[in-house]
Design goal:
This protein is an alpha+beta fold. The protein is built from 14 helices and 23 strands. The strands form seven sheets. Strands 3-9-10-16-13-12-11 form a seven-stranded mixed β-sheet, with helices on both faces. Bound molecules: glycyl-adenosine-5'-phosphate.
């Protein structure tokens, strides 16, 4: 199936539900519009996306530390950051069908009366646009009133700025250095949609890189390149990725540059991540509003300054969706359609399928032993002894399991198993004692299959 096919998203949504990646939230009560729960495979997929981000951004670097700040902060945070006054989308109502649309996204919207048409095509009677604040309000404590109003954070970034001084004083870091954070954010989107691409509750992976102002251009270029490369390294087709530099009139008044990493989804090009130069805007505003000095004193140069910031801000759900869409392929094996997800092995929710060839001759017991051995070595495995071996392979192909281990007569006789590669479907005999090192080597050496690169354009 061509990925541009309009039914492609339906195929992805249905695979996600059927195999336990993503379910509609509150489904037994009829759902709650555009909100989703992650099932057993989805939660593994997202965990791996986060782990891949964290290991590259934090663990493997000596200029980065992590943070986990609160979702509900002092509401002054959002007044100072400008979100209370300005985090709005232009909203229009249709007087006829009563639906609400984003005025700047009418071409992407569907009239509720005639979902085949956009509001403009359906000649909807639209009101003048008015600003609609996207923050979810809540209240703190038992007494309602303006004094108790608080907000669910619309981005994780502000928690990083609030803790800049704490981290500086407690972690022996000095610019250039970054603070990374993964966590939930909430936006009352007027038109969520395209499955988990735009939802009201989502996870972000954000990093604020604090730098001497004169290094701004260097780090902006560095993070553009590095973030683009991260997606490529985790198997996303480079031909479907692009860097889109914002035009001057798209930039916030304080910003010197911003680039989106975009992916070509079945519904068109969309933002996967933004890399923004935020100058000293946030530290300066929080410093002024709190009365706390958030500057840094460079003891070598003997200068005090407010660091500037380059911010790569990614969406975890969007990344998981992108990797799923990008990994999807249908091919034909032995005259039958095979659905396969060519995930990078470190992204695949299950790494190894373990299959006794038959349910006798001690094979299930041996297979269970190997399964346990691999679990203890921290591989995620799936043991399956039901149905013909070909069918078991297909079930794992469909969820993207990169390796399948079959325990057969040779295992019982000579202590060797057969390992099948999801992408090439080639099989190799490996000694039981060498399975672990074989797998670790294969994962490190994995390359995006050439066939897919050619067919995904
Ligand atoms: N601190 C900057 C910031 O929040 P953003 O472009 O608004 O920037 C960063 O958000 C990323 O978060 C986006 O590139 C996208 O991947 C993800 N994101 C934003 N809104 C989202 C939504 N409603 N649903 C899912 N992901 C979203």
């Amino acid at each position: 199936m061509a990925k541009q096919d309009t039914t492609f998203m339906d195929t992805i949504v249905s695979l996600c539900k059927r195999r336990g990646f993503v379910y509609p939230a509150s489904e037994i009560y009829g759902g709650i519009g555009n909100t989703y729960d992650y099932g057993p495979l989805g939660v593994e997929l997202k965990r791996r996306v986060k782990e891949a981000w964290w290991s590259r951004m934090v663990t493997m670097r000596d200029d980065m530390v992590g943070l986990d700040s609160a979702i509900i902060q002092n509401p002054q945070t959002w007044i100072t950051s400008g979100h209370v006054a300005g985090f709005t989308d232009p909203l229009v109502d249709c007087k006829k069908c009563k639906a609400r649309f984003r005025a700047d996204k009418l071409d992407d919207a569907r009239c509720t009366e005639k979902p085949s048409r956009t509001p403009v095509e359906n000649k909807c009677e639209l009101t003048e646009a008015r600003a609609f604040n996207l923050m979810f309000k809540t209240q703190i404590g038992a007494v309602e009133g303006s004094g108790s109003v608080a907000y669910l954070r619309p981005e994780t970034a502000q928690g990083i700025f609030l803790n800049f001084k704490n981290v500086l004083e407690s972690s022996r870091v000095k610019p250039p250095f970054g603070i990374a954070q993964i966590g939930k954010s909430f936006r009352n989107e007027i038109t969520p949609g395209n499955f988990v691409f735009r939802t009201r509750e989502f996870e972000q992976a954000e990093m604020e890189f604090f730098i001497p102002p004169e290094q701004n251009d260097h780090w902006y270029q560095y993070w553009r390149k590095e973030r683009h490369q991260w997606y490529v390294d985790y198997g996303v087709n480079p031909e479907k990725l692009r860097l889109r530099e914002h035009a001057k009139d798209e930039l916030a008044h304080y910003s010197t540059g911003c680039t989106d990493v975009e992916y070509e989804y079945p519904f068109g090009w969309g933002e996967l991540e933004g890399i923004a130069c935020r100058t000293d805007f946030d530290l300066k505003r929080h410093s002024e509003a709190s009365g706390k000095d958030l500057s840094y004193f460079d003891p070598e140069k003997k200068v005090r300054y407010l660091p500037w910031v380059v911010e790569p801000a990614a969406g975890v759900d969007r990344t998981a969706l992108t990797m799923l869409i990008d990994a999807y392929e249908e091919d034909v094996v032995e005259d039958e359609k095979r659905v396969v997800l060519h995930f990078h092995p470190e992204i695949a929710p299950v790494t190894v399928g373990v299959f006794p060839l038959v349910k006798k001759e001690g094979m299930p017991e041996k297979a269970r032993e190997i399964d346990q051995m691999l679990r203890q070595a921290r591989f995620t495995t799936f043991y399956d002894e039901s149905a013909a071996i070909g069918r078991r392979y297909r079930r794992q192909d469909e969820i993207g399991t990169p390796y399948g281990i079959t325990i057969d007569g040779d295992t019982m006789k000579d202590g060797v198993v057969t390992i099948r590669n999801r992408d090439t479907m080639l099989q190799e005999k490996v000694k039981v004692a060498e399975i672990e090192s074989w797998l670790r080597h294969a994962i490190r050496a994995w390359k995006r299959p050439a066939k897919k690169a050619a067919s995904a354009g």
